């Protein structure tokens, strides 16, 4: 994420983009793509980063919670935008998300193969969002976005007959979540660049319990839900 931000700042400061930066931040800029967002439907694509976590709720309190080690994943997808009125748009942003989380189960076994589970996830993500835009100022237009999403996990292991005692961590294939975030449309001469930050909060339990009973891995878990921070760079 830091590298991407630094790269973007470098692009803005290069000689070839100096006029763009001057136009963007000047008091009386030349208005770029003035009628672009007045279209009924327009499309784009995005690239980005993610950081996924798990939120655990327990049936009974336990001395040590399950620890989640997060990593930075990546997102890629397309955008279809339907203009409902001047300040409200309906957006469909299907994409491919990849992420990895390591789970540490306290008090389960003594070796790493017992207490550590690597959860590699490849998601096909289907968010349906409402975008609420502010009044455009020059070549900048901030917005809020929120809605619902459903996700297909291609790495769920849901059909596996093995469980954690065969070192197989299983989750459900389909989950649902709600999403909230904000961003900014930056109008250049040829395209709209839209960086955004969004939080995703799972609303369905996605854990598949172990077949083995009793299980030190899943017996005390009442629910396990994904949550994530999503950073996307969209181009229209």
Question: Layout of helices and strands, plus pairs?
Answer:
Elements: H1 2-13, H2 18-25, E1 41-58, E2 67-70, E3 73-85, E4 88-92, E5 95-104, H3 112-115, E6 116-133, E7 140-153, E8 174-187, E9 192-202, E10 221-235
Antiparallel strand pairs: 1-3, 1-10, 2-5, 3-4, 3-5, 4-6, 5-6, 6-7, 7-8, 8-9, 9-10
Structural write-up:
Residues 39-206 form the Outer membrane protein beta-barrel domain. It comes from Flavobacterium nitrogenifigens. By secondary structure, the chain is mainly beta. It has a single domain, classed as Beta Barrel (Porin). The protein has three helices and ten strands. The chain has helices at residues 2-13, 18-25, 112-115, and strands at residues 41-58, 67-70, 73-85, 88-92, 95-104, 116-133, 140-153, 174-187, 192-202, 221-235. Strands 1, 2, 3, 4, 5, 6, 7, 8, 9 and 10 form a ten-stranded antiparallel beta sheet that branches. A hairpin with a 4-residue loop joins strand 8 (174-187) and strand 9. Mean pLDDT is 88; it is low at 11-19.
Assign the CATH architecture: Beta Barrel
* Overall domain count: 1
End-to-end Cα distance, whole Å, is: 21 Å
Number of strands: 10
| Low-pLDDT residue spans | 11-19
How much helical structure, as a percent, in the residues?
A: 10-25%
CATH class category: Mainly Beta
Structural class: mainly beta
Compute the number of helices.
3
The largest pleated sheet is described as: 10 strands, antiparallel
User: What is the H/E string?
Assistant: HHEEEEEHEEEEE
CATH topology: Porin
Strand content: over 45%
Nearest-angstrom radius of gyration? 22 Å
User: Mean pLDDT score, rounded?
Assistant: 88
